[in-house]
Amino acid sequence: MDVKGAQVRHESLGLDEDDLLRIYRHMLLARMVDERSWILNRQGKAAFVISCQGHEGAQVGTAYNLRPGHDYVYPYYRDAGITMLLGQSARDQFLSLLGKKEDPNSAGRQMPGHFSSRELNIVSASAPVGVQYPQAVGTALAFKMRGEDGMVLACGGEASTSSGDWHEAMNFAGIHDLPVVFLVENNVYAISVPEKMQVAGSIAKRAEGYGFPGVEVDGNDVLAVYEAAKEAFDRVRRGDGPSLIEAKTYRLTAHSSDDDDRRYREREEVEEWRLKDPIVRFEKYLEEAGVLDAEKKEEMAAGIKVEIDEAVEYAEGAPYADPEEALERVYAEG
Amino acid sequence: MTEGTIARWLKAEGDEIEKDEPLAEVDTDKVNAELPSPVTGKIEKLLISEGATVDVGTEIALVTIAGESQTTEAPPREDEATETPTEEFPAADTEAQPVAAGDGTNQRAVVEARSEEARSDGDGRGEFESAETLKLKRSSPVVRRLAGEHGISIEEVPGTGAGGRVTKKDIEAYVEERETERETPAMAATIAAPGREPERERVPVYEGDRVVKLTSVRRAIANRMSSSKREAPHAWTMVEADVSGLVSLRERDKDEFAEREGIRLTYLPFIVKAVVEGLKMHPVLNSVWDGDRIVLRKRINIGVAVDLEDALIVPVILDADELTILGLARKIDDVVKRARNGQLSPDDVAGGTFTVNNPGALGSVVSVPIINHSQTAIVSAEAVVKRPVAVDDAIAVRSMINLEVSFDHRVMDGGAALRFLNTVKERLEDYGPESVIG
Amino acid sequence: MATKNLLQAIHEGLAEEMRSDDSVMVLGEDVGKAGGVFRVTQGLQDEFGPLRVMDTPLAESLIVGSAIGLSVNGMRPVAEIQFADFIPPAFDQLVSEAARFYYRSNGAWKVPLTIRAPYGAVHGGALYHSQSVEAWFCNTPGLKVVAPTFPADAKGMLKSAIRDPNPVLFFEHKRTYRLIKEEVLEDDYEVPLGEARVHRQGTDLTVVSYGLMLYQALQVAQKLSEEHGIEAEVVEPRTLYPLDKETILDSVKKTGKFLAVSEANLTGSVSAEIAAIVAQEAFEWLDGPVMRLGAPDVPAAAFAKPMLDFFVPSAEKIEAAILELARY
């Protein structure tokens, strides 16, 4: 792709250079935070890591269309790229990773990856897969009932579309033309179960059965995702009803720090997908668009590293919640 | 404790026996107790011979209950005191059967001694009392609490609840009634259902009071002392002996003795030896009252009273007349040690014919001992103290010891007792610093 | 004041809340156009429209899940599960999700959700329209479970449940919908959750019950008072979880005897939990064993009437149980 062609692409999407750099930084931040999390786990400091590596394009591309604090998001456990873009910091990530009191998601009550923020309208995530979908469409219904222009982004992996809850929610969204976008981050594996054992037919095409559009997109091409999401979000905000985006991507790490993926997939396959790493691909685009050079890249990475170092140090020194606090906030008052 | 020894039958086959009357002497390792009959009737058969040791729960005798013909039901049995007092408590709608509730505190003492010892031995013989039993004995938490607060025994309250249980209302009514009857003597005994414990007015318990439950040993002692005093008209007399010579002798020899023998040389072996000699010369004190006759024992088995913290135990030195001072010293040391460690066997406390009490070891100068039940006399040896006495019209400081005898006045008179005491005194006064300890 | 049956009282409470608060809404199967299979929501859709009184697809998990989503975005949904027997598909959303939102987010997200469900054995209902399922939910911290028996209580407690920022499971005994009538205030009033009620005072024993069994226990208590002079104190928990222990314990400490009567399978029932509390905390006041009367441990109630009648504790069984305990 030539420079001019590259420029046209993002401009046609309404993105300027600042946007591009912001998008890039979010992807890089997500990746670097994740990498450091694994190191902390292998050092025995973090009990559990569940990664977003490989998903950065799908997540940032979609979430860049959100209005933080206005729209609602139901992320799943891999969506650190989304939550950090919405406003959670690297420090927040590590506080959550280490289960400290200042963890914004749960003050250490939940495992890492169970995002929650009232201010950012990130609804508390759970562990059972798929439960977020009925909740998400309920939230979307509230917007519709009040005639507001808020919308809901509901995310999950391809396996979450196997659950009854996903189908019940899709159905409901279709009946009532709800302002919700379903983002399915199809990363080929649900722990060890591959796509062909998980999904009958096409996820994207299921939307048609529920009465609304569904698109398949290259999840590792952040601009392609951005485009698909923009269209879906615009549609929703116009009041034309829900959309489904199936972002085809790949899980570069094992399912979690408790999983050994060598048991069920070949290194060759992973390496093949690394060649399509969304960050590498976007860097190439940015370089071609003249937005990023080696020096800038290094500067950005260095800046992020400083941010992460500080965040880790802070999180490691931060206190745990008082044990007796485990008894509190079972019921809301008032 | 899971077994006991029938030391002696106190009744024979064919005898009539009354409830509470002693049926046998039973030995456990702590207690030489009498087993009072739980029933009134006629002894058909004694199933166990004297000296035999049997497990708790073994049948020991067959008794036909008064007023029942033998041919009707199976002959009621007297079970040996068991750990499961199930049979002790009749269900409300059955007739008063043999082993009735609260009967014979002696028996319960033995029962409890066994159950408690079984528990403390970690015996784990979990035989559960039946619900019916517990219902009557322990009723319910609130009834127990009220009973405790008012110092009432649940068994004395008439119960209208299921199975004859005392209900909360029952005990509340009883308390009220009792309070209005405070001035008049307790009539409750007459309304006790058959098989209930004989009425006794309970001491009220006030706040701050501590209630000490009776151990089986204490209960056994209480019973024996009561029996002894009740049966034998006690008389008492005292002499004092100048044992200065004995004191010097002991001073001279005690260190070497201790080193050689590994035990302390106290005055007690000397006293026992003197007593033995006294008994040889005055055998009437080594006897047993037998109603219409007195049996003079040949063997001289001296019981030595040992003070334990909260009880008294009397291990016996059999054939004490065959032992030298050394032999006696060793034997005394042995039984005292074992008594203090709770290691005495039934045999150790059996067969005594005479008892020597030694309150002098604790500093007593005068005491009036109670005869060991079924024996005829008991000697107390007091502390050896230096006192100014007249010796040939001059005042000298001598080591003096008081010696007393309590004796059964049915069996002998003061003269016999004093003659005996004087023999003991003379023997003790005979010792001098040059005597040989034989 | 007007005489209302349970059904009418619940309807009234719901309608009043919807009128006074725009965020209150109803959703469930057949609740809109048809007004609910028991007619509890009759007329509401006409008044408030098809979004505020919504006929949902046949998908219980969706009903409760979307209600959660509604409640975290400014609404106060009152979801109906047509029969308590059909709660299981929504179990995850109710127990793992709704009950835990507040706790797991450390207080960030409240779920002011009410779920209504008819329960209790009814002739013809058989295994899937008769169950008493409350025990499944009565050890779920974060959830409240209520089962008011009388109309006035039900109206007041429904209002409290709707206003409560926590998820509340609201059980209605279907046999008593029309059976129990009483004077009900036509005003706005609340009956607080977490409070038991002493229906009848007595000194001989404490009977704790709810639902149809409570109604029967009260009649039996009256009969035994007249015929035997036995005075039973009858207490209704009203809120099954968390329990008002104080009221129940005070009663048992007074009478010394406890009997729980319920229509649920005996083992692991709410009665069992109350009994355990009584046995532990009222031990010194007990003058008799802690008793429970419940349905046998077999699946719900059969279709055929003789088997149904055998399953549900009858007035005769209640009477016998009270007599036996009183006489202990």
Low-confidence stretches of chain A: none
The beta-strand count of chain A equals 7
Estimated radius of gyration of chain C: 19 Å
Question: Could you name the CATH topology of chain A?
Answer: Rossmann fold
The CATH homologous superfamily name of the largest domain in chain C equals Thiamin diphosphate (ThDP)-binding fold, Pyr/PP domains
Shape of chain A: globular
- Architecture per CATH nomenclature, i.e. the level-2 architecture of the largest domain in chain C: 3-Layer(aba) Sandwich
CATH overall fold name of the largest domain in chain C: Rossmann fold
Quaternary state of the chains: heterotrimer
Strand order of the largest sheet of chain A: 1-2-3-7-6
Task: Assign an overall shape of chain C.
Answer: globular
Strand content of chain C: 15-25%
- Tally of helical segments of chain A: 13
Features:
heterotrimer, B: 438 residues, alpha+beta, OB fold (Dihydrolipoamide Acetyltransferase, E2P), Chloramphenicol Acetyltransferase, 3 domains, four-stranded antiparallel beta sheet, 10 helices, C: 328 residues, Rossmann fold, 2 domains, five-stranded mixed beta sheet, 12 helices
Descriptive report:
The complex is a heterotrimer of chains A (334), B (438) and C (328). Helices cover 47% and strands 9% of the residues of chain A. Chain A is α/β, with parallel strands linked by helices and 334 residues long. A 5-stranded parallel β-sheet of chain A has the order 1-2-3-7-6, sandwiched between helices. In chain A, a hairpin with a 2-residue loop joins strand 4 (189-190) and strand 5. With 438 residues, chain B is of the alpha+beta class. Chain B folds into 3 domains: 3-129, Beta Barrel (OB fold (Dihydrolipoamide Acetyltransferase, E2P)); 132-200, no CATH class; 232-430, Chloramphenicol Acetyltransferase (2-Layer Sandwich). Chain C folds into 2 domains: 2-184, Rossmann fold (3-Layer(aba) Sandwich), CATH 3.40.50; 197-327, Rossmann fold. Chain C is globular and about 60 Å long. Chain C has helices at residues 6-20, 44-52, 60-71, 91-98, 101-104, 134-137, 151-163, 212-228, 245-255, 270-281, 305-311, 315-327, and strands spanning 2-5, 24-28, 53-55, 76-80, 114-119, 144-146, 168-173, 181-184, 197-200, 205-209, 232-236, 239-241, 258-265, 291-295. The N and C termini of chain C lie far apart (43 Å). Classes of the chains: A alpha/beta (334), B alpha+beta (438), C alpha/beta (328). Chain B binds chain C through residues 140-143, 145, 161-162, 165, 167-168, and chain C through 256, 283-288, 327-328.
